[in-house]
Amino acid sequence: MTSSNLRFILGSIALLTSIAMLAFPGQSHAQNFPAKPIKLIIPHAPGGNSDAFGRILAQKLSERIGQQVIVENKVGAGGTIAVAFTAKSAPDGYTLVVADNGTQSIAPALYGPKLPYDVFKDFTPITLAVTFPAVILIHPSVQAKTPKEFVALVKSQPGKFTFSSAGTGNGSHLALELFRSAAGGLDMVHIPYKGGAPAMQALLAGDVQMTSVSVNTSIAHIQSGKAKAIGLAATKRSAALPDVPTFIESGIPFEAENWIAILGSAGIPTQIVNRLNTEIAFALQQPDVKERLAKLGLDVVASSPAAYSQMLVTDVPKWGKAVKDSGAVAE
Fold first, then answer.
1. What confidence score (pLDDT) does residue 186 get?
2. I need a surface site. Which of 22, 96, 260, 264 has the fewest CB within 10 A?
3. pTM surpassing 0.90?
């Protein structure tokens, strides 16, 4: 083969490669992903489950992929500002959001046409990462130890008992609305507060008789005897509260499982989605990560993108009905 023929063949290969890259630009980017830091947007303020989870994941994922995962808290409007920001980002996998049932399942009914994104169309699912159930607490002065005893007591004195929440339309409020409905329509008075901390303090002070919190928030108060847990709003017991039965076990068909998922904007190439899903699942399944998350009451799921999408189909109407029944609207 002459040198001119060899140069012709090599030139042809280079030309074909360039044409292929122009025709399928996403494929080239996907093969090199990640080539720069990834931004992980957290919709809520530091200190909550989303923030703690996001920082734990970011640390482990950075070690795994060899690129920094930068955490950025972008708070406001119940987390919808951060989620809307992510929906409008480039579909390249470099901007992800720590979404939850509040931003994806509750917000559509709460905000209605004002919601600046479509939860089914504007995102690429990466994984349903973790779940965490609500725990319903009552004040120690309430003469009931089980869900059925509490339900009977409330029904015997309609309108007397009160419950606190972190705000009208908040997940804690809606979880209690689901419970009241499942228990046969309990006649109780809702007292909303501006945040979970004051709602919890109201219970501890005896200003209200019931509230709903996450597992990690409840543990210290249960152990101190300042609050009683009457049930777990989940399909199975929590390792963090093994002695607290689920409401389903107690004969009340009620669960209000919260969740956290990792999403990107719509249109991220499948190769990048698969890479992210694999790496995030690996990070979440590490024993040290699972242990840290378990202490927060978070159960690792690390699902496929398809499994998240299937879950959302049933979760949106469930929480949507709770919003409608409560009469809550976004302020």
1. 95
2. 22
3. no
